[in-house]
Design goal:
The complex is a heterotrimer of chains A (362), B (320) and C (278). Chain A is an alpha/beta fold. In chain A, 40% of the residues lie in helices and 19% in strands. Chain A has a domain at 41-118 and 296-359: Periplasmic binding protein-like II (D-Maltodextrin-Binding Protein, domain 2). Chain A has helices spanning 2-30, 52-65, 78-87, 101-106, 139-147, 156-161, 182-194, 196-201, 218-228, 238-243, 263-272, 309-323, 340-350; strands at 41-47, 69-75, 92-95, 112-127, 136-137, 173-177, 214-216, 232-237, 250-252, 258-259, 295-303, 354-355, 358-359. Chain B has helices at 9-55, 58-61, 75-106, 109-121, 127-154, 169-193, 197-205, 210-239, 242-247, 265-273, 279-312; strands at residues 65-66, 71-72. Chain B has a single domain, classed as MetI-like fold (Orthogonal Bundle). The chains are: A alpha/beta (362), B mainly alpha (320), C mainly alpha (278).
């Protein structure tokens, strides 16, 4: 009696399941019609959450002309990208934190190449009631706010940089990312560069031991927390600040110039920085008058020697497209373009990738 | 006792063969559950090894969590987990029980099926949705209304002191309470529904009011089942990740005020595991999971003892 | 006097229970209202028919995620529900007091408290790493581990409630123990077990954390259970945390669909049971 009921239920469940499956079968068969029959290649990638929207759109666009290549990219953290590439459970990774020498050595599939995919800027955002149009924070002040040494908005040191602006007598509430993130990495990298105290007390990492403040998971939590908390200050990637119309602070770059976060500022930082042959570089607090000081790269991670020739060749072709044509999509989604000089070097790097001893990109 | 004497021999044999197979099957499943726990436990111990070797017992009592300098202490997370889970239990257990009693003993069958269904829907809401709701609705409400109110009336108690931020242990506890409520309510309800109606009728016939009837004829019969439901709820509260991390403030501190931000074990694992790359860091995150494993273990021993003592205590019923 | 006090107390308690119920419904309507107002506008037919599209491309949907979630929940149920029910039968019907069954109960309770992400990590290191890739199977498997203890716990409580007289009636009729359990005890407790199963299904269908390292997620259709597969909660999380309003809205629509899906399964199960028991 009971088992019959169970069978009946399972039947219904299967029925519900079958409906969309039938639908999907029909959709799938639509795609290859009229195209030459090539064995489809599925590539799996994972890593940086920051680059997910851009890669996603690039993949969509790329697929229009290359229907036989399916790229599945999931943004679940730079650390995941590094780990999974190293374990060879995915075909490529993406990260905002360059792989360390140890990590490179531990990678199971040989030499890992790190290819810059795009650039981003981290914006400092705040919520001050009756906010001034522009809030200027010089490097030491910013560090001291995040260190908890400056505790009130009407602190003399903030006022000095903002003449003519009256800031309220309000406690500063620091909001930071609680989940490990490349955004935290870039900010803490910057703070370590400009503040010796931060460098020795906190350091840089995707998660750090924050001296003060409350943590929110993900951009949504951070911007939510800031919107909901008067007197708060935090940081998000520029795209998030712009899309959600958050106020952003003007910072001082290495040359002492006040700059608001911008894509051009991030690109300028990349141009001004000396990038080593393995592409690992930190571009925070870069020289140059136009640079925005809190910027960073996102790298694609892939093995120099590809196990599977078909997959490897598809991957290299896609990445080559991504750093060339794919860059036209960057600014629409608020990512900075790669500097042209760098793209040339990256292409040369892609050409060194081989499978069974043969280069995959000519 | 198991089989009737006058059965034909042949029938008896097949029945007992089927019986044995079925019994064996259930035994096998039970063993697999035990094996599953041991296996998961062992897997965790295995991957936690570097951290256990490096920190030893100081891991449990350490208060610093510094991924950059690779110094790890779990105490603030243990504290936050326990406080939020108990808070959730204190709120959800009576409310859930109240809902169960209302549905079973007071509501008409139509009301019962509609509201019962609605309450179960609470279980269907994904935790990330609870989390987002917590950020935009719950936390501001706590900061502007509830926390100042509590501070005004009960401010002399350390629990209700400090700056109201909204993102706090209170928020974490409340959101957990909402999430475990359907478990407690649904199971209590089923358990109470199973109390034979004769018991109720007997109590009422003796002139008991409805409440007295519930108290003497329903609750005692259902109490071990209700406790079971509560324990399931507690398990969920201890291990819940996404919703808690979005409202708790994620600050590894030990502060007495419920208004203060804190951190929970499940939250720190989910927050940092995807980004952790060094072996020590990863193993520390697994070890803190192992501690949660241990906490669940200890709490369950207590709960079992409680159930045991309750069951041995006076059985309810009309005679008492 | 005493009588009035008793009646007064009765009224008070009834009032308290009613208030408790209303209290429980506030967050439900709060959360549901929030999801509906945010999600309804992004919900259309395309949402159910299409794959996710890149930012700014209209007409993207979550068809693959819906199917992916259903598939993995089905895998989890096919493992979790039978294992849970059978274990609970062993614990209540065959061996309720030995050290072994105490140990199993204990294991069950401990398993309910394991954070779901830990389950994901364990399956990752034992299944994904061994197989060398992420897969729907690994995802379903980790969900089933979350389901098993929930099923055991609720089923056990429900079986305990079946009056002993019913079992004895079975034996008196000359029916063997196994048959009594299957034909008499289980159907008596079926409604309660069903409630437990639905709670368990509801719980796992909203899980994100254990899927991150097992199913991974997929923008496209998975062609087999051996490939990374999309899941609604994963997609919702990814979209909800993105900077773009359009995606955030899709995330809300996804939440609405996920809730409706669970509710739908729940209703189907209930209807099936009602029509059967009549």
């Amino acid at each position: 009696m009971f088992t019959k009921k169970r069978q009946f239920l399972t039947g219904i469940l299967l029925g519900v399941l079958a409906l969309p499956l039938v639908g999907c079968g029909a959709q799938n068969s639509n795609i290859p019609v009229g195209q030459e029959k090539i064995e489809p290649v599925t590539l799996t990638g994972a890593g940086s959450t920051f680059v997910y929207p851009l890669l996603n759109q690039q993949i969509e666009a790329y697929r229009k002309n290359n229907p036989s290549i399916v790229v599945n990219y999931q943004g679940n953290g730079s650390g995941t990208g590094i780990k999974q590439v190293s374990e060879q459970t995915i075909d490529f990774g993406a990260t905002e934190v360059p792989m360390s020498d140890e990590q490179l050595k531990a990678a199971k599939g040989g030499t890992v190449l790190q290819i810059p995919l795009t650039l981003g800027a981290v914006a400092v955002t705040y919520n001050i009631p009756d906010a001034p149009k522009e809030l200027k924070l010089e490097p030491e002040v910013l560090a001291d706010i995040f260190l908890g040494t400056i505790t009130d908005w009407n602190d003399q040191r903030i006022a000095t940089d903002n003449p003519g602006v009256t800031l309220p007598d309000l406690k500063i509430a620091v909001a930071h990312r609680s989940d490990g993130s490349g955004t935290t990495y870039i900010l803490s990298d910057y703070l370590s560069r400009i503040s010796p105290v931060w460098f020795s007390k906190v350091g840089k990492g995707t998660s750090v031991n924050w001296p003060v403040g409350i943590g929110g998971k993900g951009n949504a939590s951070i911007s939510g927390t800031i919107q909901q908390t008067p007197g708060s200050i935090g940081y998000v990637e520029l795209a998030y600040a712009v899309q959600n119309k958050l106020p952003v602070a003007t910072l001082q770059n290495k040359e002492g110039k006040w700059v608001a976060p911008s894509l051009q500022g991030a690109s300028a930082a990349a141009v001004a920085s000396k990038i080593s042959t393995d592409m690992r570089v930190s571009i925070v607090n870069a020289p140059g008058v136009d640079t925005y000081p809190i910027s960073g790269f996102t790298w694609a991670l892939l093995y120099q020697d590809q196990r599977d020739k078909a997959k490897g060749s598809a991957l290299v072709k896609f990445l080559n497209w991504s750093i060339h044509e794919g860059q036209t999509m960057s600014e629409g989604l608020l990512y900075a373009k790669l500097p042209p000089d760098l793209v040339i070097r990256e292409e040369a790097m892609l050409k060194t990738i081989t499978s069974e001893g043969q280069p995959l990109l000519k | 006792m198991e089989e009737s004497e006058n059965m034909s021999n042949k029938k008896k044999l097949t029945a007992s063969l089927g019986d044995k197979t079925f019994r064996l099957l259930t035994l096998l499943m039970a063993m697999s559950v035990l094996a599953l726990m041991v296996w998961i436990g062992w897997q965790m111990v295995d991957s936690a090894r570097p951290s256990i070797a490096k920190f030893g017992f100081t891991f449990v009592i350490g208060r610093v969590w510094d991924p950059v300098k690779e110094q790890f202490g779990a105490l603030p997370f243990i504290y936050g987990t326990l406080v939020t889970s108990f808070l959730a239990l204190i709120i959800a257990a009576p409310v859930g029980l109240g809902v169960a009693i209302f549905l079973n003993e007071m509501a008409t069958s139509k009301v019962r099926s509609v509201i019962g269904f609605l309450v179960e829907m609470l279980a269907a809401i994904p935790s990330v949705v609870y989390g987002l709701w917590g950020i935009f609705i719950l936390a501001p409400w706590l900061r502007e209304t509830v926390e100042p109110g509590l501070a005004k009336w009960f401010g002399f108690i350390p629990l209700f002191q400090g700056t109201p931020l909204g993102f706090s242990m209170l928020a974490g506890g409340l959101i957990l309470a909402v999430m475990i409520l359907p478990t407690i309510a649904s199971i209590s309800r089923e358990v109470m529904a199973a109390v034979p109606n004769e018991q109720r009728e007997a109590a009422l016939a003796l002139g008991a009011t409805k409440w007295e009837m519930i108290r003497i004829a329903v609750l005692p019969y259902a109490k071990s089942g209700i406790l079971g439901g509560v324990m399931l709820g507690l398990g969920r509260a201890l291990g819940e990740t996404m919703a808690v991390t979005m409202v708790i403030g994620n600050r590894p501190d030990i502060l007495s005020s419920l208004f203060a931000p804190a951190y929970s074990i499940a939250a720190v694992i989910a927050n940092e595991f995807t980004e952790a790359t060094s072996d020590l860091y990863l193993s520390a995150l697994v070890e803190i999971g192992l501690i949660l494993f241990g906490i669940t273990l200890i709490l369950n021993v207590f709960a079992r003892l409680l159930v045991w003592s309750v069951e041995r205590g006076p059985k309810g019923g009309i005679s008492s | 006097m005493n009588d009035r006090l008793r009646r007064y107390r009765n009224e008070m308690m009834m009032g308290i229970f009613t208030v408790a119920t209303l209290l429980a419904l506030i967050p439900l309507f709060g959360v549901l209202g929030y999801v509906v107002t945010n999600g309804l506008s992004a919900l259309n037919l395309e949402f159910f028919m299409n794959l996710p599209k890149g930012m700014g491309t209209p007409g993207g949907g979550m068809a693959n995620s819906i199917v992916g979630t259903l598939i993995m929940v089905l895998i989890a149920s096919l493992i979790g529900i039978p294992v849970g029910i059978l274990t609970a039968i062993y614990l209540t019907e065959y061996d309720s007091a030995s050290w072994f069954s105490m140990g199993v109960r204990f294991a069950t309770d401990v398993l309910t408290g394991i954070p779901s992400i830990i389950v994901g990590i364990v399956i990752y290191s034992s299944v994904v790493l061994k197989m060398g890739h992420f897969s729907a199977l690994a995802g379903g498997l980790s969900l089933s581990i979350i389901m098993i203890p929930l099923m055991i716990r609720s089923t056990e409580e429900m079986l305990k409630l079946v009056p002993h007289s019913i079992r004895e009636a079975g034996y008196a009729l000359g029916i063997s123990k196994g048959t009594t359990i299957i034909k008499i005890v289980l159907p008596t407790a079926a409604k309660g077990i069903m409630t437990g199963a639905m709670l368990a299904v509801a719980r796992v269908s909203g899980e994100t954390a254990p899927l991150l390292f097992t199913a991974l997620g997929n923008q496209y259709w998975a062609r087999s259970l051996n490939e990374p597969i999309a899941a609604l909660p994963v997609q919702i999380y990814q979209y909800a945390t993105s900077p773009y309003k359009a995606w955030q809205q899709q995330a809300w629509a996804g939440s609405l669909v996920l809730i409706s899906l669970v509710v739908l399964l729940n209703l189907i199960a209930r209807c099936a049971f009602r029509s059967r028991s009549n």
